[in-house]
Amino acid sequence: MSAPWNADELSRSFKARAVKADRYLLELREKIRRNDSYKVISDQTLAEFYVYDPLWERTFLATRELLLAELAEMKEADPNPPQAYDRGMFRDAYDNTLADLIKRLSV
Fold it and tell me: CB count, 10 Å around CB of 61?
């Protein structure tokens, strides 16, 4: 049996993940100046930010079904952040992050 639905806890979790990604993106800017290989990590972290940032303190967190419907809409969206170094890498990371979240919430 799964744990009871807790919208406030989910919101805090999503906010924490978005804030963590945002902070790491700032750190990565410096690292990229010294080593281009950090661009891949930056695109992956940016994708995490784009998934988690719009999810906290939102009314669709009220139920699992509403959140899953919102995530399904996000799958159809086409985010194109100007900060992404490789659009394909960003999109793959975005899709994988969403898929992982949907899988965790669907059990």
Answer: 20
